[in-house]
Amino acid sequence: MTSTVDAPVSTSPARALVCRGCGTEFPLAAQHACYECFGPLEIAYDPAALARVTRAQIEAGPQNIWRYAALLPAGQDPAERVTLDPGLTPLVSAPALAAAIGLRAPLWVKDDSANPTHSFKDRVVSVALTAARGLGFTRFACASTGNLANSVAAHAARAGAPSVVFIPGDLEAGKVVTTAVYGGQLVAIDGSYDDVNRLCSELVETDEFEDTAFVNVNVRPYYAEGSKTLGYEVAEQLGWRIPAQVVIPMASGELLTKVDKAFSELVEVGLVEAPAGGWKVFGAQSAGCNPIATALHNGSDTVIPVKPTGIAKSLNIGDPAAGAYAIETVTRTGGWMDYADDDEIRAGIELLARTTGVFAETAGGVTVAVLQKLVASGRLDPEAETVVFNTGEGLKTLDAVADRVGPTHRIKPSLRAARDAGLLG
Amino acid sequence: MTSTVDAPVSTSPARALVCRGCGTEFPLAAQHACYECFGPLEIAYDPAALARVTRAQIEAGPQNIWRYAALLPAGQDPAERVTLDPGLTPLVSAPALAAAIGLRAPLWVKDDSANPTHSFKDRVVSVALTAARGLGFTRFACASTGNLANSVAAHAARAGAPSVVFIPGDLEAGKVVTTAVYGGQLVAIDGSYDDVNRLCSELVETDEFEDTAFVNVNVRPYYAEGSKTLGYEVAEQLGWRIPAQVVIPMASGELLTKVDKAFSELVEVGLVEAPAGGWKVFGAQSAGCNPIATALHNGSDTVIPVKPTGIAKSLNIGDPAAGAYAIETVTRTGGWMDYADDDEIRAGIELLARTTGVFAETAGGVTVAVLQKLVASGRLDPEAETVVFNTGEGLKTLDAVADRVGPTHRIKPSLRAARDAGLLG
């Protein structure tokens, strides 16, 4: 748009990699685990650089995640980005959904199915691959439950770079075709996502993959930061306010922690006032893969891996990397976690579609079903403003509802047939 | 966004309905054919009202089609809209696609798969249903080849209004489920789209459908205007310039005529300078349904209906309502038309995906394949800036490419298996 400015931001505000376990710092590089304690790393920022960011600067930026470039570890220079320009997806007002489930305060659906490859993964991939190119990587890869595969393959196609994507062999057809069509290498693994992930952790150490950035392995700290943009956008779209409650689906658990991190940063750097009662973060899992919610329910912060089952395949990470951090976030903010079984997930997809016009993939069904449970159980305050996150597109998981919905009438093309079918009263 | 203004525009600039055949004018109402000559009607505007519109006013508007409300027949007041807020979809630079097909000038893909229900139909439905509500209709309907069905059902769901959608019985599963999930009535007709359309023309005259707006029948003049927003956006996204060449898929032929109308209006009202050599409009059909292109190739402006076949179902209108107008537009601007067979369509989808990261439905494959033919035949100037329109989403027509693409490797989850498969050099 001619009305916006997408000029290079001076430099990255990222300062170091810091261990989430022991706090040791490392220089910015393609490193994902602490050399001291093997804990996961995340990006640490220069507080002075973050404090210089203004609302006006963000609002004048491009209509995508890069308006927040001054709060991200990479992508400050538009010319250096590897991106499909995701983000600034709709925040949909959902009064009919609120009424249906007994919420009496404003309810919003943050609809990330509107991203270029129709899931929130475009955000994390854009940040990871932009960082990866800056670090000298020339080939792009991932271990994926599906949406990430779509996104990495599409990003690589637009950038003209080779890609190699690893998926479990039993993925939904929508996600397989939507990766393969971009023409990179696509490796189906005879095993679960956790098996795929383990193999990628081994491949990344080989000489043959030295030039390859696995977005969620060796450049994971950058990748994870991309999820912060979901939190930034919700706050900006609410008129620079943080909602009282958010309900977020969990696979690795990382999305949930990063939305919370985004809210905290906005308050710290003075872009948003802290809401009086703080904000509560709620997590949603599928009953077929609920290790994080189960640990929380058991009063533990130790997540015991499970073998995932069920239709919410994009959430089927049985050994979630950020599970303990998700529990910490939910506990600290006064939220809760719950999970939904396959029938509840299907009903959640339909309820969301019928009340908002948003057709979600199974992960969205999980989140809506869990929202409903949290209201019913009294864990979620029905009088407080709530944002629920839909992270993917119903077209990718058609089978979930294909047996439940269809034409209400089948007739021949005549007025008489329409009358016989009751369409004319 | 807090940086934009979505305040009511004073009043609609629409002045009357005017017959495209004989020029007779009628008051604005739910009328779609001329009482004098039975010709189709379109919206006539107050030139003084259009002339008051400024670039600054548009640029300060919302990030969707309603930024152009002052150039549309309905939707001036945000509170009165029936809408999913479509539009402002990406204009994607496509240098690798240009190189692959021998274009040596800038090539852009206007990617309307980014709309809320992932086709350009959200634009026309938003304008049609907003006008319809203003005219007093309480139920929303359409005859559809699929994308329109998705859009009408989703719009009705968000608006909390009843819907009744008529589709041919053999539609792609993706389009059936994505309509049915919204919970309205969905009537599958044992016949072609043209049969469906005829039945709807009869139903609209019955007492039982008196309260029902068929977006592409009784409120068609409003509906068609929604397509103008595609032309406005392309010009604005190019920095208020009109490209030398546009390539547009044709079903009824109306989209093509309205993009041309949008360009003409922008020049007339002074928002854009007329390009030195004008602009050329090119039309794309599927070989299985090519009545408009065939008429042009035969030097005729009489479109002889056909019985459609082939995989590009969203373009399968055998008796296209605006065919003669499309021929007039293409002839007047010095463009041309061509068509692509099913294999060429599939190859077009893959070529677009691999070079741009955009996964199109079959209609997009048609357009890319025809673009390629137009360059090869010399009809399209390879030295002139070109915009090609992708009107829909690949996820809705997965079957088109599902047999052609898939995993490149299938292995067990071990380094040894990866080595045996050649993944380690």
Can you walk through the features of this model?
Two copies of one chain form a homodimer. The first copy, chain A, is of the alpha/beta class. Chain A has two domains: 172 residues, Rossmann fold, CATH 3.40.50; 204 residues, Rossmann fold (3-Layer(aba) Sandwich), CATH 3.40.50.1100. Helix content of chain A is 36%, strand content 15%. Chain A has 16 helices and 14 strands. In chain A, the strands form three sheets. In chain A, strands 4-5-13-10-11-12 form a six-stranded mixed sheet, with helices on both faces. In chain A, strands 8-7-6-9 form a four-stranded parallel sheet. The longest helix of chain A has 15 residues. The model of chain A has no long low-confidence stretch (mean pLDDT 95). Strand 14 of chain A pairs parallel with strand 8 of chain B, so a sheet runs across the interface.
Brief digest:
The structure is a homodimer. With about 425 residues, chain A is of the alpha/beta class.
Question: What brief labels describe this structure?
Answer:
homodimer; 425 residues; alpha/beta; Rossmann fold; six-stranded mixed β-sheet; four-stranded parallel β-sheet; 16 helices; 36% helix; 15% strand; globular; lyase (chains A, B); Ser/Thr_Dehydratase (chains A, B); threonine deaminase activity (chains A, B); TrpB-like_PALP (chains A, B)
Shape of chain A: globular
Biggest sheet character of chain A: 6 strands, mixed
Helix content of chain A: 25-40%
Distance between the amino and carboxyl termini of chain A: 50 Å
For the record, what CATH class of the largest domain in chain A applies?
A: Alpha Beta
Low-confidence parts of chain A:
none
Count the E strands of chain A: 14
Q: How many independent structural domains of chain A? A: 2
Q: Roughly what fraction of the amino acids of chain A lie in strands?
A: 15-25%
Could you tell me the CATH topology label of the largest domain in chain A.
Answer: Rossmann fold
Q: Provide the succession of SSEs of chain A.
A: EEEHHEHEHEHEHEHEHHEHEHHEHHEHEH
Please work out how many helical segments of chain A DSSP would assign: 16
Kindly provide the radius of gyration of chain A, computed on alpha-carbon positions and rounded to a whole number of angstroms: 21 Å
Q: What value does the average pLDDT of chain A take?
A: 95
Most extensive interface, chain pair and sizes: A-B, 87 and 87 residues
Strand order of the largest sheet of chain A: 4-5-13-10-11-12
Shape-level CATH architecture of the largest domain in chain A: 3-Layer(aba) Sandwich
The SS-based structural class of chain A is alpha/beta
Oligomer type: homodimer
Keywords (chains A, B): Lyase, Pyridoxal phosphate
InterPro entries (chains A, B): Ser/Thr_Dehydratase, Thr_synthase-like, TrpB-like_PALP, TrpB-like_PALP_sf
Modified residues (N6-(pyridoxal phosphate)lysine) (chains A, B): 121
EC number (chains A, B): 4.2.3.1
